[in-house]
Amino acid sequence: MIAATALMVKDADKLTMGQELQVITPHAIEGILRQPPDRWLSNARLTHYQGLLLNPLRVIFTPPTALNPASLLPDPDMGTPLHDCADILAQVYGVREDLQDQPLSDTDAIWFTDGSSFVHQGQRWCGQKTLPPGTSAQKAELIALTQALKLGRDRKLTVYTDSRYAFATAHVHGAIYREQGLLTAEGKDIKNKEEILALLAALWEPKKLAIVHCPGHQKTTDPVSWGNNLADQTAKIIARPPAQLLTLQLPDPGPRELPPSPEYSESDIQWMSKLPMTRIKDGWWRDSKSSIILPDKLGWQVLERIHRSAHLGSWRMLDLLRQTRLKIRNVSDKVDQVVTKCTVCQLNNASSNPQTTGVRQRGSRPGTYWEVDFTEVKPGKYGYKYLPVFVDTFSGWTEAFPTKNETVQIVAKKILEEILPRYGFPVMIGSDNGPAFVSKPCRGSMKMYGPN
Question: What sequence ranges are listed for the domain Integrase catalytic (predicted)?
Fold first, then answer.
């Protein structure tokens, strides 16, 4: 009826030339157009009809006036509408007639629903169980809403959800599925068929029901946003299992206290005597910073115990020893020896071989040393998408040639036709060892003419 009215108004504009137009109809077209289009019409169509028909200065809706055939006077009883358009829409496009999309004023409970899962190593998990392939967040939202309706049996319930899919399934798509079957527009089975059927059956569990859509992940502090965020956080906590803690038992490093009396050797005493401002306290030698000087034998034992407890590297062990205020003769060399002789460290630690940095030689005169590389031109015109660039390392002079391909033939051709005739034979041509530079034809042609 709305589409027919819009079509007639559009054709009548050709005759009225934009003047006032009265639309006489027994249907509540104006009232229906002012309702939200959640249940029966898309936003695009509703916007088109509202812009065309809801124009109070030009389009006026009036009820029909019926005449009594006997008196030819208006009969008020004959103008009574035979039905309520809003009720008809609710019956046709709704699964349950009293299902509302606004909160109930006499509700017994207000619940919020949400779902969550996580992906680990390419597979979706929920708690300690893996989910089947193809499981989506929409399926979780349907299950959550269904369980909420089952728990609210025989109660006046208001349920908030941030899923447009679950909200539309309950309010709009359920009636369509009831008439046309669980099929898509192409005639194929819809996804989540079992969950949709369970939701449509659970809609009749509560005594009175309102399913309300609310925006998700809002930062406002109103009760609806707070409740939705709490449901989202609770779903995430339940979906993600607690982190597993791996305990590691380290070997006992030995006694933490020094022996009551040290056993210094003659070599230890000779070395300590040469240190400045040393003194003896409680039988222990101390240096100028009051650090205890350990005997050579005891120093080896302390270093081996420290390393065996956590297998620290040389730098970490030296840093730890500085904090203990212990002094050991030639401590750096001894720490390196302890770490090097440790079998566990040598088997597990990565190789510490220093990486050699590349060196680009610079020529002593122009034209002797060149660097070449390909760059891509975007957008390429007339098929020329690549640009081989030659740079003289001595002067910085640049030669570039647009090409259609990035091949070894192009490199050899440009060197033979452009570089050699004008600059002579180069001593070396460097590159990034790309496919166009390390192939056998390119290297063969370079060896033939001299450059490396």
Answer: 362-452
Residue 94, classed as helix, strand or coil, is: coil
Any bridge partners for residue 314, and if so which?
none
For residues 222-238, give the mean pLDDT.
87
The whole-angstrom separation of Cα 7 and Cα 14 is 12
Quick one: pLDDT at residue 159? Answer: 92
CA pseudo-torsion sign 278, 279, 280, 282: negative
Cβ of 132: how many Cβ atoms within 10 Å? 7
The answer to whether 186 and 197 have CB atoms below 8 angstroms apart is no
Structure tokens at 186: 């192409």
Q: How far apart are CA 196 and CA 194, in angstroms?
A: 5
* AA letter at 310: A
Kindly report, residue by residue over 126-148, the tens digit of the pLDDT: 655 666 666 777 888 888 899 99
Full DSSP string of 105-121: TT-SEEEEE----EEET
Report the CATH number of the 369-449 domain: 3.30.420.10
Q: How far apart are CA 113 and CA 167, in angstroms?
A: 11
Domains of the chain, by residue range, sit at 2-87, 94-239, 266-347, 369-449
Topology match between the domains 266-347 and 369-449: no
What architecture is the 266-347 domain classified under in CATH? Answer: Orthogonal Bundle (1.10)
Gyration radius from the chain CA atoms: 43
DSSP code per residue over 310-355: H---HHHHHHHHHHHTEE-TTHHHHHHHHHHH-HHHHHHSPP-PPP
Give the span between the Cα atoms of 82 and 91, in whole angstroms: 16
* Amino acid identity, position 79: G
Q: Tell the CATH superfamily of the 94-239 domain.
A: Ribonuclease H-like superfamily/Ribonuclease H (3.30.420.10)
Instruction: State how far the Cα of 186 lies from the Cα of 352, in Å rounded to an integer.
Output: 63
Angle at 231 between CA 227 and CA 234, to 5 degrees: 135
Residue 81 pLDDT grade (very low, low, confident, very high; cuts 50, 70, 90)? low
Query: What's the mean pLDDT in 6-21?
Result: 83
What amino acid occupies position 433? N
Strand ranges of the sheet holding 208-213, from the earlier edge strand across to the other edge: 109-113, 156-161, 208-213
Tens-digit pLDDT profile for residues 299-312: 888 888 888 888 88
The C-alpha atoms of residue 432 and residue 437 are separated, in whole angstroms, by 8
